[in-house]
From TrEMBL:
Protein name, UniProt field: Quinone oxidoreductase PIG3
NADP found in the keyword field: yes
The species this protein was found in: Myotis brandtii
InterPro entries: ADH-like_C, ADH-like_N, ER, GroES-like_sf, NAD(P)-bd_dom_sf, Quinone_OxRdtase_PIG3
GO MF annotations, alphabetized: NADPH binding; quinone binding; quinone reductase (NADPH) activity
SMART domains registered for this protein in UniProt: PKS_ER
Length: 332
């Protein structure tokens, strides 16, 4: 089968398609014939040599995919049949023509969605769902500040916060991204290149601050985050795009707010946790992708590339110009 490959860590120019052995499904696993796989920051970091896949995971890039069930491994419980369309959360291996998946990490493709749209759901939407509900304990009426509001996770978090009855606010880096976030249901958006998002957030919340912050930036935003956090607010850190270092009185400011700083990742979690997350998401959220009206959810796709253009896809993600997800289509 064809798979995205790189011989040594580095830039997008190191990526190419290589003929590799097709994997075989192990105990309780399904072989997915991959139609599409979405790009994530994890793919960029892994290509740069900064993010090793978890122990036992495929070294091939790609942590979410959609396609059809091609084979059932021994011990499968019988939920899936050969030929069923499915989308999958992976710990690696998605950017190839076939990938193995524990059967509990497969989800049905919502009616009315294409395979590329479905490929844009698993990692981004499960991350947003996990951050809001399992880690951030979002409540109706909460104000939620979502950094990188036009990203895959950001566009999912806006919509999930909205249907949970919360008030989503976002930071973005352009006017186009601002308009898109508001169209998805953000109550307000702040262009961090043009204004101080912390001051703007305090103004919007009439001085109260936000109850919850979803933060993939880290270091460079710490002071503004803590300044616009409400008393007893929760600040959930899930990425370090703005660096890992903090210098200054973070603890005293956080203590003064009685704030909680919690960190979370999804890829490194164990199979049992991921299966619980996938089950909850499948039951509570997946039906909303096929609904009509204000409760409807929509994966946001920016561009779809044939997998042969993998270098271009990585360059485009690194330009930070995209809104929503970048998807790769695999040859069928």
């Amino acid at each position: 089968m064809l798979a995205v490959h790189f011989d040594q860590p580095g830039g997008p120019e190191n990526l190419y398609l290589k003929e590799v052995a097709k994997p075989s499904p192990g105990e309780g696993e399904v072989l997915l014939k991959v139609a599409a796989s979405a790009l994530n920051r994890a793919d960029i970091l892994q290509r740069q040599g900064q993010y090793a896949p978890p122990p036992g995971a495929s070294s091939i890039l790609g942590i979410e995919a959609s396609g059809h069930v091609a084979e059932l491994g021994p011990g499968c419980q019988g939920h899936w049949k050969i030929g069923d369309p499915a989308m999958a959360l992976l710990s690696g291996g998605g950017q190839a023509q076939y990938a193995t998946v524990p059967e509990g990490l497969l989800m049905p493709i919502p009616a009315g969605l294409t395979l590329p749209q479905a490929a844009a759901i698993p990692e981004a939407w499960l991350t947003a769902f996990q951050l809001l509900h399992l880690v951030g304990n979002v409540q109706a009426g909460d104000s939620v500040l979502i950094h990188a509001g036009a990203s895959g996770v950001g566009t999912a978090a806006i919509q999930l916060a909205r249907i949970a009855g919360a008030i989503p606010l976002v930071t973005v880096g352009s006017q186009d991204k601002l308009q898109m976030a508001e169209k998805l249901g953000a109550a307000a958006g702040f262009n961090y290149k043009e204004e101080d998002f912390s001051e703007a957030t305090m103004k919007f919340t009439k001085g109260a601050g936000v109850n919850l912050i979803l933060d993939c930036i880290g270091g460079s935003y710490w002071e503004k985050n803590v300044n616009c956090l409400a008393l007893d607010g929760r600040w959930v850190l899930y990425g370090l795009m703005g660096g890992a270092d903090v210098s200054g009185p973070l603890f005293s400011k956080l203590l003064f707010k009685r704030g909680s700083l919690v960190t979370s990742l999804l890829r490194s979690r164990d199979k049992k946790y991921k299966q619980m997350l996938v089950k909850a998401f499948t039951e509570q959220i997946v039906p909303h992708f096929s609904m009509e009206g204000p409760q409807r959810l929509l994966p946001v796709l920016d561009r779809v590339y044939p997998v042969a253009e993998i270098q271009e896809a990585h360059k485009y993600m690194e330009s930070n110009k995209h809104m929503g997800k970048i998807v790769l289509e695999l040859p069928q």
